[in-house]
Amino acid sequence: MAFLITSPLINEVAVLLLVSLLGWKFTLIYVVVGMAVGMLGGAFLDKIKAERWLADFAAEALKQGQHQQGDIVQPHADAPRLSLAKRHAFAKEETLTIFKRVWLWVIVGVGLGAALHGFVPDGWLAAHLGAGQWWSVPAAVLIGIPLYSNATGVIPVMESLIVNGLPIGTTLAFCMSTVAASFPEFILLKQVMKWQLLGTLLLVLLVSFTLVGWVFNFVSPLIS
Fold first, then answer.
1. Is the Cβ–Cβ distance between 202 and 210 less than 8 Å?
2. CB of 116 within 8 A of CB of 184?
């Protein structure tokens, strides 16, 4: 879960673009905060034993993996070795199994993101959320949920919002929500998670992004 939370927020391309857009101080803080959100969120979900809310097949796979890790397997000289052809056959079967389970939801999720992309104009966000009120950060997070982008593609949107007067913290909160808490992503995650885990994960992300936005709005005058 820490990997799932962190990976959409931080990648090497986004970091390089952020350096050119915000400078190395803001970028460093963003990377540290993004990693902290992932680690703390993962630790919290582990603490409440969120694995009980995995889909049945995913929970069974987790149990099998834990069981295999707990066993001490003694190799046998006469143990059969998979040939290259059998390995390819196994890989093909696994690929088809996963594809059959998620292909429809990939189309639905990406289609929804494409349909809503650009639905909220930059000028509207800057006009309504640009004064820096405390409520503008959670509002920006909620507005970002129906939309979808990746960490690289959202950088031009971030630049446009900042140029139009949206505070840095509010901009980051909106973009983080668009990248990591969007409806299309959660439609895909529904294939491996039950509603309880989806709701908990969404709540963790929304609270985290709101706190990040408030922090950046507070410190931005100090380090700009």
1. no
2. no
Torsion of the alpha carbons at 120, 125, 127 and 131, rounded to the nearest 10: 170
Q: What is the largest CA-CA distance in the chain?
A: 72
d(CA 71, CA 158): 49
Which runs of E-coded beta strand occur in the chain?
Answer: none
Q: What is the pLDDT of residues 128-178, one digit of tens each?
A: 777 778 898 999 888 888 777 777 777 787 888 888 888 888 888 888 888
d(CA 187, CA 184) in angstroms, rounded, equals 5
CA distance 46 to 24: 33
Angle CA 182–184–189, to nearest 5: 95
Tokens 């066993």: give the residue. Answer: 71
**CA–CA separation, 99 and 92 (whole Å):** 10
- Report the distance separating Cα 112 and Cα 198, nearest Å: 18
Quick one: three-class SS letters along 173-204? Answer: HHHHHHHHCCHHHHHHHCCCECHHHHHHHHHH
% residues pLDDT > 90 (the chain): 12
Q: Which residue has the tokens 């609270």?
A: 207
Cβ–Cβ < 8 Å for 117, 148: yes
CA 176 – CA 10 distance, rounded (Å): 10
Please say whether the beta carbons of 8 and 181 come within 8 A.
no
Spatial CA neighbour of 196 closest among 204, 208, 184, 207:
204
Instruction: Give me the residues paired with residue 54 across strands.
Output: 193
